[in-house]
Amino acid sequence: MPHGPYQPAPGGPPPNRSRLLPHLLLGLVFVIAVVAVAALVTFRVLRDQEDPGTGGPTVLSRPVRFLAVEKSEPGPCKPGLLSDPSSAECLQVGSGMTIGRVADIRVRPPDAARGRTSHVVAISLIRQDAQTFATMTTKAAQAQPPANRIAIVAEGRVLSAPAVTSPITGGEIEITGSASQFTKEYTEGLVRRITGR
Question: Does Membrane appear among the keywords (predicted)?
Fold first, then answer.
């Protein structure tokens, strides 16, 4: 065997550690990115399944109807009229719309800076329902009481029947009332009644 300079082993030069480091770092960055994306997807799935009172897209457990109030009278309710639990009135309702899901539903706390003295149930309708609701609320806002109200009905029961003060054209609904009635507990209960959960 001849003597002389070192001869590389067959198959190429020995690995250079300074060249391996960038490849290892690149692999590490890739693994971290995959873990981060998996965590984000998991968070998004969990957020969509969280309690509907905390907001986010929500599929309602049964259809909810928004129906125009045509007439109201004191109880006890005659056949064909629906009892409004918040006012002890009996409501005759007309046409309206049915929804099966919302883009968002949550309770918002009082906000003095915005002039909100009570808790609020905030609902964002999906785009397909927003236009129909805009038409309903435009008509209700121009009507005299009690036809200025829209009843929220599920399984034949009135959940709430708020008055409409102005047309709601963007699909963003706020159901509110006096601070003594629209407490945190009341509004959270209303969200549960609307979502059926």
Answer: yes
**Of the candidates 66, 74, 81, 77, the residue with the CA atom closest to the CA atom of residue 125:** 66
Provide the 10 A C-beta neighbour count for residue 195: 21
pTM beyond 0.85, yes or no: no
Q: Cα(151)–Cα(175) distance, rounded to whole angstroms?
A: 11
Q: What is the DSSP string of 61-98?
A: EEEEEEEEEEEEEESSPPTT-EEETTTTEEEEEEEEEE
Write b or e for each residue in 26-38: b if 16 or more Cβ atoms lie within 10 A of its Cβ, otherwise e. eeeeeeeeeeeee
Q: What is the pLDDT of residues 132-191, one digit of tens each?
A: 999 999 999 999 999 999 999 999 999 999 999 999 999 999 999 999 999 999 999 999
How far, in Å, CA of 179 to CA of 118, rounded?
A: 4
| Spatial separation of the C-alpha atoms in residues 69 and 163, rounded to whole Å | 10
